[in-house]
Write a structure and sequence with these properties.
Blueprint (H helix, E strand, L loop, with lengths): L3 H15 L4 E6 L10 H8 L8 E3 L2 E5 L4 E5 L4 E6 L9 E7 L3 E6 L6 E4 L2 H7 L12 H9 L5 H6 L9 H11 L12 H21 L9 H4 L15 E5 L2 E5 L1 H4 L2
Antiparallel strand pairs: 1-6, 2-3, 3-4, 4-8, 5-7, 6-7, 9-10
The protein binds a DNA duplex through helix 6.
Length: 259
Amino acid sequence: MPELPDVEGFKRTLAEHATGHQIERVAVRDPGVLRGVSARQLTSRLRGHRFAEPRRQGKWVIAGTDGPAVLMHFGMTGSLRWTDGHAPAERFERLTFVTDGGELHYDDMRKLTGISLASNDEEARRLLRSLGPDALTVQPGEFADLMHGRRAALKTVLMDQHVVAGLGNLLTDEILWRACINPRRAASSLTAHEVRRLYARMRWVLRTSIQAGDVPAKRSWLTGVRYEPAPRCPRCRTPLCHARIGGRTSVWCPRCQGE
DNA sequence: TCAGTTGTTTATAT
DNA sequence: AATATAAACAACTG
């Protein structure tokens, strides 16, 4: 269930375990996750190279090496696991990087996105150049400018990876609920005060979620109640509204955030 | 059997 | 350029 906090965790897995280790081979169990590269190419171009410090931009992990860089996306169901030695394949394991120190396993049930290869970090940046600034590191002034220039519904704008990278459906609803702003408001209609509040709540939700390793499903969070049959606002107990906004199911509190 | 799903890309129209 | 919408991708859950 990868949202930005989960992806940050995958990056950490790479950083803590894989960095410095040499890739001996890549075992492609399901080429359906490869994007723009064949299984043979992936192995031959990566073999012998060592993982460097990984980066994250939005929901992408860039696993650099002293040669090519691996671009990973996790769609709705992907994840990354490290095992110190060889481990039998999990049910949805699609690809394994076998290194001299252990194995990095890419699991993904649905295969909605996948893995691609860039010749170097420069090409990796070029491939991801259409992404907006990362939601965790975007500066308040830049964030305000981005919101100001968009007339579409706030929910749609926040989820648009070309505007700000990293916010998915659950995170966006959680942030808007905490900022007490209606998801259908035009982004450009926010007052300066509202933009500052939105920014502050976004930072808080992201930092708290990253610490937890995912968006917490606690009862005090919108995320923790949104799948209940008749969910109520964790703050004021008002029954929550739900509708499709920007093509995704959205949940909000009509009392805290307006109808 | 059918609807729904935590995401991205592409096409299409406005 | 923005904006809005739908479809496709794939495989599971309720």
